[in-house]
Design a protein that fits this description.
Layout (H helix, E strand, L loop, with lengths): L14 H10 L1 E5 L2 E6 L9 E6 L8 H18 L10 E7 L7 H23 L1
Parallel strand pairs: 3-4
Antiparallel strand pairs: 1-2, 2-4
Helix pairs in contact: 2-3
């Protein structure tokens, strides 16, 4: 049975870890999402922790910011199945950069592409 939950252990919440992620992360951009990822070398219970963000500068209303973040979390939750098969320790941030809110289907495609790219870059750097 596939685990489709999104527990607290998979959320990146520590200020220190978030600051470390922004300082040391590798970055790339798949419009409208900027992706940051970093392998901190810590032992994480769930392996991968994520952070989602939508800037107040682009979305003035909290309702819109919360909607974007909810869509990003849901897209990741649905697309993470293949990504989480290997035991890896990784922190990822998905930062929404557009002013237009995309549909869940298009965000799922973008998240899937981002996770595949992270996987490829990590395999390349490990070999």
């Amino acid at each position: 049975m596939i685990d489709t939950r999104f527990p607290k252990e998979e959320r990146l919440r520590s200020r220190k870890q978030i600051q470390n992620l922004f300082e040391k992360a590798k970055r790339f951009h798949i419009p409208p999402i900027q992706i940051l990822y970093h392998a901190p070398g810590l032992e994480l219970e769930r392996g991968v922790q994520i952070l989602v963000g939508a800037p107040k500068k682009r979305f003035k209303k909290a309702v819109d910011r919360n909607r974007v973040k909810r869509l990003l979390r849901e897209a990741y939750r649905l697309e993470r199945q293949d990504f989480g098969k290997r035991k890896i320790c990784l922190q990822i941030a998905f930062l929404y950069t557009s002013e237009k809110i995309l549909s869940l289907d298009s965000l799922r495609t973008i998240i899937k592409n981002a996770l595949n790219r992270i996987d490829q870059e990590r395999e390349f750097s490990e070999s």
